[in-house]
């Protein structure tokens, strides 16, 4: 237990320098980009004097180190500032967006697991046979399709062709779960295509390795039924890889669903991030970046802990 | 087990088939989009909920924050919550709204605004002359940093009585009514005013709807205002605006029926032109597609350089490449041929590559390198047009074109304020429903849309004549002069005429648009059965 | 008796495992002084022979076409207007794939676009590789502080959603070929840092390294002559797939409007340009999508093959 606590603690500590570097880097990078918040707020018909006035009011005319420390001080008290345009508290907006992206990410993970795990088990059992080879080819293909093509294909099939789902839009779950699912399924599906193929390959390759091990032979010799062997004995060592890639996928999905969100008009974190970068909404950018790093650190703590719990041979360093 | 293998394969095959299927039924762009006359507007039935798709976000509800009566950005929503004192229709005629009239007796030296009696905001406070003046003074205060400053600072106002405001422009302005109608017709309740330069987050207006829900990244929901001044309006109970960034997805949503209205151009929905589930409503006034020379740049302050470029391009090629509509026809006149101001001899010369090359050689012989910095807003249709421009011009010896792409949100600031370009394409169409105002914005010194930095005394005089014209004949004559100077000086090159349009569900009716295309959202509704 | 910790092979793009990949037992470099014979189990080759041949052929053709584009007979310049816009394919070389939205040859733009895509893939990989090798090698060999630094750097780079980081970098540096390549190289560096570090750690404990040190070899010599060559198989198996990612990400950037500026053709740019006319003229977007897909598929296949050759699980006695 002590070792575990220490491990968790050390990983959290590791996270702090990362957080500092990332937020500092974000502040510096924004400085290098053209444009200014004042310009974004006032739009094209404003004079330079008006733009400068807004920038001064937002504290944008100060050197970035000063702005950064100001932000850190407030952030430590939980105040991440206000959004650039609507002056809403950043934390409120962020939570709303994060909830949306998190929902899509979890749905995508579930879709991917539900498809990938059974198929991988099947293919591992019949390694080298037709099913295995076909799936190998198909997943190779699916991994090679970029996300901006994925969304178009998914839309083509399910919206234009089958007419099962609406093309765009979002209704939060608080306003009706059925409505929400109607809008959420398609983006989650688009996101899950890559992950499903990815999971499939990892699990399958791991399983075929595991199935060669001696203890499987022993189980077969004992006369245990094959499904049971698969589920209880063979999957266990593969759980570590599965957990790792699930963590990676979650991290990837949380931050990277930009194209899906843009295409399906879903108000998620990725779309918000792109918007914040383009209008130089510093409080929002820093908040998003902080959330991403924290999520990343947390995910890997959980993954490492799960890793250690699943595979007793591994001790958490 | 076999099922999943086949299902996977079936999906893959199905997707491929769908792609080819759409290719076969897509029509290959041979059909012309239906720009038939809008159906005789039926009176819509009362009630219903309707969704309009938009591309622009609402960041503030300040009545002084709009950037023009264009559809799909802020104007529609501002009009929904505030209504308008006056508006301009597609024929350039000022229409009453919350105000009964805005008139001048002395050619624009003084104006009188007459409000309707008994107007109230949704919070119960009265909308009277005093409130109007408060709004206009607020617009004119630079500390508030509002776009409305531009127009509001050109006049001062005083309260005559409860429903009358007297307006005195700094200089006699015969078109102030159109300018106000096109930029600052919105009046908000003083209780809703924020501190200086802060966004207005809780609008209180006297418009057809009341704002119920607002999420800047998603859209807005409005409900009917029962106390709206116009009897029986609005027809709808609920009006939604939904933000969808991708234009093709907007089309798909309307075709599918999840939303009812979107604005765009006919070339964006060619594939659905004959679909009975949708209809098209064109904005009758139409506008010009053009590109602009920076007449103050080293290269294009020389008339020969401008003429050379104009002679090198083929307008039909530009228009069809931009719209991907092979039936498009190029046009270099400032007006469509259906306009009373049109004259066939007031167009630019035809494409002539030899003459263009001769002029290029002259300019380079004088020591000016023919290097064109072309600035393009990063929208696919403009990128196509820009690339065509580049490869056409680079056919000529001695010409280099450097193409820079910038995000559309930054286009105006870069080209209008910063001027670091030689040529740029105007995004979309430039509306000319009120040409004396529109062309003034385009060609007059300090005009709102004078990207060309054009400064020509004859042009200014002609525009002022047009503005001051009291009869149609006078206006036609004055605008004829404007067009003659355009042909002579070539500050911009028009290459086509296009009509903003709305794609809508077949069951929606009541379409009327303001001059530059924004919808009267209080007049739309569903067809009565 | 040691049971090395194994992790799933890097069999999918974007896989950033933190653990140690199994390393080839050196045959040529150094001697194995182990007294315990090891049983090496080869995983059955997952890559279908036909697919591999296709992949290699396609990539070779692509490279040849890209390199010799200027001398292909009948191939117009990528900016040359050869006809009306969106023409269907005909039997000439120039019009083999029809024309794009401006009337230029699709075939020409695909081939010249290959130059851009392949250049980006190669150069950004090199940049990432250099960063990864240096940091990973130093971190894995010297451990302690160097390793901590490597960890922090890798974690920083991967904590941020890659697209967000790219957008910010490209906005700051500028959307030129150089800017995008550098940005991509920085973003992918964390993969190389991790893999290198893990492999170096494993290799450092090997007998041949101890032997070399005993013989008096200096650190640098050991790193370069003993360890580095043993990294080649591991890196060789992830490089193709990382290159595939680079090409796709460039496509995503172009799709969002931050890619290589016109008129230089790039596949992502062609896809973005064809997206808005897709319903009327699907062929315009079909060619770049198909090319991108086949190229990524080929890279993935080659990477799969290499990793299946080098990734050998060591059995226990």
Description:
- The complex is a heterotrimer of chains A (317), B (529) and C (317).
- Chain A has helices at 2-32, 37-42, 48-57, 64-76, 90-125, 130-143, 147-161, 177-210, 214-222, 226-256, 258-264, 269-279, 282-310.
- With 317 residues, chain A is mostly helical.
- In chain A, helix 7 (147-161) packs parallel to helix 11 (258-264) and helix 11 (258-264) crosses helix 12 (269-279).
- Chain A is globular and about 85 Å long.
- With 529 residues, chain B is α+β, with helices and mostly antiparallel strands.
- Chain B contains 14 helices and 21 strands.
- Chain B has helices spanning 2-25, 74-82, 129-140, 149-152, 176-183, 247-256, 303-312, 315-323, 353-365, 380-393, 408-418, 435-443, 457-468, 472-489; strands spanning 49-54, 86-88, 94-96, 99-103, 111-115, 155-161, 164-169, 209-215, 219-224, 238-243, 261-264, 278-282, 287-293, 370-377, 399-406, 423-425, 430-431, 492-498, 501-505, 508-509, 525-526.
- A seven-stranded mixed sheet of chain B has the order 8-9-10-1-11-19-12, sandwiched between helices.
- In chain B, helix 12 (435-443) runs antiparallel to helix 13.
- The longest helix of chain B has 24 residues, at 2-25.
- Chain B starts with a helix and ends with a strand.
- Residues 1-40 of chain B have low confidence and may be disordered.
- By secondary structure, chain C is an all-alpha fold.
- Chain C is 62% helix and 1% strand.
- Chain C has a two-stranded antiparallel ribbon.
- In chain C, helix 2 packs antiparallel against helix 3.
- The longest helix of chain C is centred in the last third of the chain and has 38 residues, at 219-256.
- Chain C is elongated, with a radius of gyration of 23 Å.
- The chains are: A mainly alpha (317), B alpha+beta (529), C mainly alpha (317).
- The interface between A and C is large, with 64 and 56 residues.
Number of strands of chain C: 2
If strands are numbered along the chain, what order do they take across the biggest sheet of chain B? 8-9-10-1-11-19-12
Detail the poorly predicted runs of chain C: 1-44, 313-317
Helix content of chain B: 25-40%
Largest sheet of chain C: 2 strands, antiparallel
How many distinct helices of chain B?
Answer: 14
- The whole-number mean of residue pLDDT values of chain B reads 86
Could you tell me the radius of gyration of chain B in angstroms? 25 Å
Which range does the strand content of chain B fall in?
Answer: 15-25%
Give the low-confidence spans of chain B. Answer: 1-40
What structural class results from the helix and strand content of chain C? mainly alpha
Class by alpha and beta content of chain B: alpha+beta
Which chains make the largest contact? A-C, 64 and 56 residues
